[in-house]
Write a structure and sequence with these properties.
Distance between the termini: 20 Å
Structural class: mainly alpha
Helix content: 25-40%
Radius of gyration: 17 Å
Order of helices and strands: HEHHHHEHEEHHH
């Protein structure tokens, strides 16, 4: 089993987070750093690892609720701003939760023609709110020997990339909601170049932290192994 040193992971990850904020870092920018847990508890939902990527790819996008557009005056690009629409411990009374479960096409977010959030994504946000809507982050272990498409690559794409790269919102004309679309950008080098923030590529994800070293390694090894649909 190959594991990435925790100290290196933490430095790289949080460096990416602060590089992506639009208000500067705490305390000058008013954005407190997340509480860090060494282990990822399976019954807990973590804002930095799970919730922010979902919101960044589904809501804080260009033309909607990013720091530039701020549609309807709403900016959802960081924890502090998101918490304006969250009642910690009470998802049903939180504006963020109510709008993502709204079935009225004229009111729900993301708005048509974009697809609504998946049931899994909605459940994750609800659980995070009900657990206190904490600004938290967990490190956990990193087994880079496992990198199949179904078990590892697709979940990374679904949680952190698909919101901006799916039918109805094909950013860069890239579709990461399917294996075929993901394989296409894997083979031409765009996928790894973007998520690794390599020179000459548009850094992804936008409006969110850079993928962890562990996730980038998973994608890199999957590509090197032939980008199989396994």
């Amino acid at each position: 089993m190959n594991k990435i040193p925790v100290s290196l992971f933490v430095v790289a990850f949080f460096g990416g987070i602060y590089a992506c904020t639009h208000e500067g870092t705490y305390p000058n920018g008013g954005i407190p750093p997340p509480t860090v847990s060494i282990n990822c508890h399976p019954d807990s939902v973590y804002f930095t690892n799970e919730v922010m990527p979902i919101i960044a790819s589904n809501c804080a996008t260009s033309g909607c609720h990013d720091a530039v557009t701020r549609a309807d005056g709403v900016d959802l690009t960081n924890y502090t701003k998101i918490m304006k629409y969250v009642k910690a411990g009470n998802a049903p009374q939180s504006k963020l939760y109510k709008i993502i479960i709204d079935t009225d096409p004229g009111d729900r977010m993301p708005p048509p023609p974009l697809s609504p959030m998946t049931a899994t994504q909605i459940a994750k946000i609800k659980k995070w709110i009900d657990q206190g809507a904490k600004n938290n982050f967990c490190i956990g272990s990193c087994d880079t020997s496992k990198f199949t498409y179904a078990a590892v690559i697709k979940p990374i794409m679904d949680n952190k990339c698909v919101g901006c790269h799916k039918p109805g919102n094909l950013g860069g004309n890239v579709n990461l909601s399917t294996y075929i679309g993901t394989k296409a950008v894997a083979l031409n080098g765009t996928l790894l170049g973007s998520i690794a923030h390599q020179s000459g590529f548009s850094p992804m994800p936008k409006n969110s932290a850079k993928l962890s070293n562990c996730e980038i390694t998973h994608v890199s090894r999957w590509i090197a192994a032939g980008s199989l649909n396994n």
